[in-house]
Design brief:
Chain lengths: 441, 96
């Protein structure tokens, strides 16, 4: 853990060889005797210790060679080697050979050594090439690369605070909503089972898994070492990457990319860090009465005593309390009854406020005060109703809606940059050949 | 035999900076604490402070409560704050 923390700051990682306190010390019942026993080592660290690295140095890894009697054996050995080195996510990965990575790189016009930033806590460099390596390991294709590059850009924006959300004890994970014509071109799911898994729409899983591999391998987010997430979870394998169902967005509403300040029809990714998915069984908005019942129920789900709403002032002010997913039938019903997105947000924001008696029961008075609120007044889940994110996605029936409570700071969006048109069209033609047309329902 | 040559998934970590030179002695020095606001800092720092003060009675130890705490210790101006307070050694901690 200490190695990774030092590495992330660009320092030689050998400082942890002096002394590392046991995890037990930091538990509620922590035994502090190890401090007493090791105080001389702490003094040694401040006075006599010398790092093995005394001058600036660069570490450029060489490629890894694995041999086997055939391809299968070599691939199996490579996977075991990766597990031994704490690389990957524990599931089988594809070999990121020169040929495979070169092919993936045809999905961008950016040079392979272009740096998008460093991924913390380890501080590995996210070059275009390294991002393509992760996408290859995740079984990706070149036409997925533009979405992944835009996602990594958004992920690395300082306002995203990705280091905090990588290392925290909370088991959050990024979700990426993609808008624009690219979603159909590369087969991102926006309909039934849009959060995956889906063999007809493999792009979301590959892109999301590639991001996770970057978080773990380049960023060092290894459980108990680089990420202290108490539980982790299945969604961490592939994060969640899906498309907004733009054809299902009611005419009087605008899709997420437009709400985020981009033009209608633009290819855009928007990233949130969430820490769960809650299925809300009930989304019938065919009458005014049923719509009100549904909205009240959703407000109940949103108004859970989630300390993360009030965990950090920047999150409360500029972040989203969560992402509300509703199917096009539900959205259409609401729109027909005169509910705009803003009207829905205002209703949910008002109705999901935590009552003063509950603020007291949960001991959240100090949280209210940190947000500049009066703990004797109902406490909203975000500074304004505008903070709540609404996305139209999911199967066309109006049976359920989803709420994904946010743990992150400011959601970030980036426009997706495609390679030059001729190249892009060739990639899409090849994808059509390789993946076959999606069968009719 | 089949030989697979694959990219290192960790990539390049760029230029590594050396650590600051150590102090010759803590006697008479100003030692500062920075807390990342995590578990038990209210217990570990006071104990470390007490033990250090016992060994180095002339050292001046500035508690973490006199500095930014939590995420604020990542701010770019933290180095200036520490220098302005005359810190010659810093103990940063103390849990993930």
């Amino acid at each position: 853990m200490v190695n990774i923390a030092f590495g992330g700051l660009g320092f030689a990682a050998d400082a942890s060889t002096i002394l590392e306190f046991p995890t037990e010390m930091f538990l509620a019942t922590g035994d502090l005797s190890s401090i007493q026993e090791n105080i001389d080592k702490l003094v040694y660290g401040l006075t006599k210790w010398k790092s093995a690295i005394e001058e600036k140095a660069a570490v450029i890894p060489s490629k890894i060679t694995v041999e086997g009697k055939d391809y299968q054996e070599a691939t199996t050995k490579m996977n075991y080697l990766f597990l031994r080195n704490q690389w990957g996510d524990g599931l089988p990965i594809l070999p990121a050979t020169t040929e495979y990575v070169d092919w993936v790189l045809t999905g961008t016009d950016l040079p392979r050594d272009n740096v998008l930033g460093i991924i913390l806590p380890r501080g590995g460099i996210a070059t275009v090439e390294q991002i393509a390596v992760a996408l290859a390991m995740a079984g990706g294709r070149p036409e997925y690369l533009p979405v992944l590059l835009a996602t990594v850009e958004a992920f690395l924006d300082p306002l995203s605070q990705h280091a905090h959300y990588a290392t925290t004890t909370g088991s959050n994970y990024p979700i990426v909503v993609v808008n624009g014509p690219i979603t159909k071109q590369i087969r991102l799911n926006s309909g039934y089972g849009c959060l995956g898994p889906d063999p007809n729409h493999p792009a979301g899983a590959s892109i999301g898994r590639a991001l996770r591999l970057l978080q773990m391998d380049v960023g060092g987010a290894i459980p108990g070492v680089g990420t202290m997430a108490i539980y982790g979870g299945a969604n961490r394998y592939t994060n969640i990457v899906f498309a907004e169902h733009e054809d299902g967005v009611p005419e009087s509403w605008v899709p997420l990319n437009v709400e985020r300040g981009f033009r209608n029809g633009s290819n855009v990714v928007t990233i949130h860090f969430v820490n769960g998915t809650i299925n809300m069984d009930g989304a019938d908005t065919s009458t005014e009465q049923s719509a009100l019942q549904v909205l009240n129920m959703w407000a109940g789900y949103i108004g859970i005593p989630n300390p993360n709403y009030w965990g950090r002032l920047p999150r409360w002010e500029n972040g989203s309390p969560g992402v509300l997913l509703m199917a096009c039938g539900t959205a259409g019903g609401l729109a027909k009854l005169g509910w705009s997105k803003d009207k829905i947000r205002n209703f949910l924001w008002e109705k999901s406020k935590l009552l003063p008696s509950k603020i007291k029961d949960y001991g959240f008075q100090y949280k209210a005060m940190e947000m500049g609120l009066d703990p004797l007044m109902p406490m909203p889940v975000s500074k304004t109703p505008k903070n709540l994110t609404i996305v139209v996605a999911g199967g066309e029936q109006s049976g359920h809606a989803y709420f994904m409570p946010n743990q992150g700071d400011t959601p970030m969006s980036r426009e997706i940059k495609l390679p030059r048109e001729v190249k892009w069209n060739d990639l899409l033609k090849q994808a059509q050949i390789d993946l076959y047309p999606i069968p009719n329902k | 035999m089949v030989k697979l040559e694959v990219y290192d998934p960790q990539g390049n970590i760029g230029e590594i900076k050396p650590h600051a030179p150590r102090l010759s002695d803590l006697a008479g020095k100003t030692i500062c604490e920075l807390s990342n606001g995590k578990w038990n800092d209210d217990k570990t720092f006071p104990l470390i402070r007490e033990l250090l003060q016992k060994q180095f009675p002339t050292a001046k130890i500035l508690p973490y409560s006199q500095f930014p705490v939590g995420g604020k210790i990542d701010n770019d101006d933290i180095g200036t704050i520490l220098k302005d307070r005359g810190c010659q050694a810093v103990i940063v901690g103390n849990a993930a």
